Amino acid sequence: MTELSHSLPAMDSAALPLFFAHIATELERNPNEVRRLFHGRGQQWPGLEQLTCDWLQGQLEVNLFKAVDDAFLDALTQGLVALSQSSLWQDKHGYCIFIQHRYVDGAPTHVVVGEQQARPVVEEHGLKFQLDIGRNQNMGIFLDMRLGRQWVQENARHKNVLNLFAYTCGFSVAAIAGGADQVVNIDMAKGALSKGRVNHQLNEHNLNQVKFLGHDIFKSWGKLRKSGPYELIIIDPPSFQKGSFALTKDYQKILRRLPDLLAEQGQVLACVNSPMVSSDFLLEAMQENAPYVVYSHRLDNPPEFADVDSEAALKALVFHYQRKL
Q1: Rounded to an integer, what distance in angstroms lies between the CA atom of residue 43 and that of residue 149?
Q2: Which CATH architecture has domain 13-117?
Q3: 56 secondary structure, DSSP code
Q4: Of 124, 115, 125, 138, which Cα lies nearest the Cα of 56?
């Protein structure tokens, strides 16, 4: 669930013209949806590896993941001001540009242009989501999972869906939009689930089809079984959550429960979002703990999240259950 973290070199202000040229190109062809415009953390832009930029439909969020020198920050700020004065910015109805310093505790934000709207409603693939920006590292939706949510929407019709580590219920919104009969969301963070309820309401979904369980997954298997079996299970955990989840230690505990939860021919979307953990970890763990849950394919990542190392990027793998005869 957390965005990837690479060990990256210092940045170079001489590379910033490439940054501004790229975001102008991407902004011009953007379908007016929330979208990553620049992904330096994919390490394809030398000198800009610790810089990202997201379009929040009127607001431009620039993220710095490591401290930069004054020359870099001044050049970045001046370029952003110039962008705000361009015809492209006017055509896109831009109204705020801000820089978030992700390397500092609390991820403080500096507004460069305009007035920040802290809780905007944005759209992705025709669905609405409310963000919470400027105060936390995570704004309420993980943009690199765009194609994962689209896959769920396209594969959820008439299915009973279990959404583990639901966060703000992006997969749940996609599933109900795709015609799911029911979605069960579970996450320890009750505040995040409350935002998930809002996201469903924004899309005028029938909340009688959606359950929000603010519980520890590892203490709730009995409760989850009662709402099953499930034709689709989504596993998108954090890489690490202090006191509750460590990916390489705890993922297996989830996988070994899958045969008790899945319907015949049920599908699993299992995700790993740590640059230190490869697809092989998940493939081997599934084979060891749920051998009848068979690998099908890996979902593509959005092209705007291109990475020099595909195994350092998000891994979203699809499996299907072939119950032992």
Answers
A1: 25
A2: 2-Layer Sandwich (3.30)
A3: -
A4: 124
Residues in the chain: 325
Residues contacting 143, CB < 8 A, separation 6+: 34, 35, 36, 54, 302, 305
The structural domains of the chain, with segments of one domain joined by +, span 13-117, 143-321
Torsion of CA 189, 195, 207, 318, to 10 degrees: -70
The Cα 141–Cα 132 span in angstroms is 9
d(CA 49, CA 64): 9
Rounded Cα gap, residues 95 and 93, in angstroms = 6
Question: Using N-to-C axis directions, what is the helix angle for 170-177 and 146-155, rounded to 10°?
Answer: 30
pTM reported for the whole predicted model: 0.93
Query: Is the pLDDT assigned to residue 238 strictly greater than 90?
Result: no
Q: What is the mean pLDDT of the chain?
A: 93
Q: Summarize pLDDT for 158-208 with one digit per residue, the tens.
A: 999 999 999 999 999 999 999 999 999 999 999 999 999 999 999 999 999
The answer to whether 137 touches 124, Cβ cutoff 8 Å, is no
For residues 267 and 293, give the distance between their C-alpha atoms in angstroms, rounded to a whole number: 8
Give me the amino acid identity at 69.
Answer: D
- Residues 237/245, Cβ–Cβ less than 8 Å: yes
| Record: fold of 143-321 | Rossmann fold (3.40.50)
